[in-house]
């Protein structure tokens, strides 16, 4: 696993979205027009807290568009479950599949496995958040070890606003 600090270059990734497009961070950065990236790893379509969070993000997606931030959500949930989720929720942001756990490992997302200290819906990743600038440098990161304590859309907007105002 790779652990990185703020202002480090984010690990590259190449994942396929439910929209069947390939999302390669290096390519997105190369074609970039000063866009920042907010990467959100979520547990799965089965998680009520995740669905609430994604619904909140969809309700405020205009903020991210207005501030030139590409929102990308990532999970290792089953593709068929995610397709149903997209049909039910009509999210406008991409949902990327981390089928091989490559993003999870590169970004050191916590995985609640068999060795977890408590039962929690079987094995799965926990929520994680990464804000990258237009060059792919990490401006913010947060990794959860359980489904609670995650920043809601309002807190993410406050964090982004604070970082933009205080960039060196």
Which secondary-structure class do the elements indicate? alpha+beta
From the alpha-carbon coordinates, what is the Rg to the nearest angstrom? 15 Å
Q: Beta fraction of the residues? A: 15-25%
Full CATH superfamily name: Glutaredoxin
What is the percent of helical residues? 25-40%
Task: Specify the CATH class.
Answer: Alpha Beta
**Stretches with pLDDT under 50, minimum 5 residues:** none
Number of helices: 6
Q: How many strand elements?
A: 9
Largest sheet, spatial ordering of strands: 2-1-5-4-3-8-9
Mean pLDDT: 93
Shape category: globular
Using the coordinates shown, work out and report the CATH topology: Glutaredoxin
Number of domains: 1
Instruction: Provide the succession of SSEs.
Output: EEHEHHEHEHEEEEH
